[in-house]
Amino acid sequence: MGKTLKPLIIGIIIGVVGLYAYQNPEIRSQISDFVGGILNSVSEAPAPA
Predict the structure, then answer these.
(1) I need a surface site. Which of 22, 43, 45, 46 has the fewest CB within 10 A?
(2) Quick one: pLDDT at residue 26?
(3) 31: burial class by Cβ within 10 Å (0-12, 13-18, 19+)?
(4) Does residue 49 have a pLDDT over 60?
(5) Are 20 and 27 in contact (CB under 8 A)?
């Protein structure tokens, strides 16, 4: 029971936070900047051999 419940709770939390952020333009721009920074650092990093 505990193994299936944990991902579900995490998913619900992510969904609620995502919906809240989607309706809030200020948070949305912060998240897009954050995700953009991650994507930039990932694409700039050398690929593992």
Answers:
(1) 46
(2) 86
(3) middle
(4) no
(5) yes
Cα 30 to Cα 17, 33, 37, 40, 46, distances in angstroms: 13, 5, 11, 15, 26
Which residues have a Cβ under 8 Å from the Cβ of 28 and sit 6 or more positions away? Answer: 21, 22
Amino acid at residue number 8? L
Place of tokens 């690929």: 47
Of 31, 38, 4, give the one whose Cα is nearest residue 17.
Answer: 31
pLDDT of 40 reads 84
Residue whose structure tokens are 């900047």: 33
Dig out the tokens for 34 from the structure: 């954050």
